Amino acid sequence: MEGKKQQIIRAAIQCFSEKGYRGTSIQDIADVLGIAKGSLYFYFKSKSDLLQFIIKNYLDRIMAEYVDLNSREDLKPRDLLRRHVLTGHRMYEENQAFFSMLLRERFEVHDELHELMMNARRQGLVMTHELISKTYGDRAHAYARDLTIIFQSMTEGFLALVVFEQQRIDPERLADYIIARLDAMVADLSQGGTDPIIDSNVLEGWLASVRGGETGKAELLAEIQTLREAVAAGALDSADNADELQSTLDVLSAELDKNEPQPVVLKGMLALLKAVKTPEIRKRALKLESGILDRLQS
């Protein structure tokens, strides 16, 4: 059974996508759920807090997908690039309400949320740049940064049609089309005579967001997201409470995502997770604990 927090998130995204963020009140969300407005404040202190949680939750899930994809050793870099398009299409289709809300609105986000969104974007750019460099080698070395932006822009541009225009796009054909355009650009640029637009300093800026353990942090956040999904699936021991587990994972994720996470908070949340009775959840909690403790000691 879906927990109350997840029900609130779904109702909020529905309202935000239909009425806009500014046009939606907490009362509107409560009305969709058929509950008292005050009940929502038990889970979220404000509409802004709810929005921040939704965006962070989805960004964690999206990055977890790409981290898992890029870790696959059975696929060549070119195949992984193609899978990036297919994965993006699937996520856009499965989460149209969220992407519609995100793309249509201009949110007044605070510095922490802005940095979170920028880091997620840069991590995506770094992963794409790495795949393009491996796929095309020396032919594209000088232009890999430009090709990264072009690839991302083509992918996002076509997928935006899925959200805004409700266009049906064949994902396999789209992936082949984008890769073919990339091939053509590499062939043309390798002839020389054109200077790249983006210099190496920009790439260093992207890398700065994922250096110093950030990649390890992304993997830990991906594991937390996997736990969230397992809890939401409802396959829990009768002694375990889904809402309490989700709240524990929320606190753990938020603390881990800080520049200087507090060990006492992390260890406290891990202790709560390890107390669960569901074997699969406990197994993953122990794996997560090992990764977090390694990070704290590094």
Automatic annotation (TrEMBL):
Keyword DNA-binding assigned: yes
The record's section on Pfam families has: TetR_N (PF00440)
Q: Does the keyword Methyltransferase apply?
A: no
Cited InterPro entries: DNA-bd_HTH_TetR-type_CS (IPR023772), Homeodomain-like_sf (IPR009057), HTH-type_Tx_Regulator (IPR050624), HTH_TetR (IPR001647), Tet_transcr_reg_TetR-rel_C_sf (IPR036271)
**Keyword field:** DNA-binding
Q: Where is the HTH tetR-type domain?
A: 2-62
Q: Name one GO molecular function term.
A: DNA binding
Q: Which residues form the DNA-binding region?
A: 25-44
Its name, as the record gives it, is AcrR family transcriptional regulator
